[in-house]
Amino acid sequence: MTRLINGESVQKTWCVAKPNADETKLKDNIEFGCSKVNCSPIDRGGSCYEPDNYIAQASVVMNLYYQAAGGGSWDCDFGGTGLITSTDPSYGTCHYV
Questions:
Q1: Per-residue model confidence (pLDDT) at position 10
Q2: How far is residue 50 from each of residues 42, 54, 62, 66, 90, measured CA to CA in Å?
Q3: At 70, phi and psi to the nearest 5?
Q4: DSSP tag of 91
Q5: Is 84 in a helix, a strand, or coil?
Q6: Where does the X8 domain lie (predicted)?
Q7: Which has the higher per-residue pLDDT, 4 or 49?
Q8: CB-based contacts of 68: which residues, under 8 Å, 6+ apart?
Q9: How many Å is the Cα radius of gyration of the chain?
């Protein structure tokens, strides 16, 4: 997927949690991200609530923050727990922006 930025075609990217990320750090990422962006997709009944685990929900929040902050590599660092991907991580009813 590509998008236009200043008239140039740029590969769309998303930010997700690294598979080996520490659960405590993922909890911190969720807390930080939800203080900056709307986290309703991971609320009970939200489109990204399932699966109800830290790596899935942190990935949603980290990406919401990453996109809102401008999508720079530094916006996906999260203390070394973030990973930028060009593969859309959307699944089921959970659609990543």
A1: 74
A2: 8, 10, 16, 21, 12
A3: 120, -10
A4: B
A5: strand
A6: 13-96
A7: 49
A8: 36, 37
A9: 13
Length of the chain: 97
Task: List pLDDT tens digits, range 51-78.
Answer: 999 999 999 999 999 999 999 999 999 9
Q: How far is CA 49 from CA 69, 70, 72, in A?
A: 23, 24, 26
Provide the whole-model pTM. 0.90
Q: How many helices (H) and strands (E) does the chain have?
A: 2, 4
| Whether pLDDT at 19 is above 80 | yes
pLDDT at site 82: 98
Q: How far apart are the C-alpha atoms of 62 and 6, rounded to whole Å?
A: 25
State the DSSP H helix or E strand holding residue 24, giving kind and residue range, or none if neither.
helix 23-34
Going by C-alpha positions, the residue among 92, 93, 87 that lies closest to residue 1 is 87
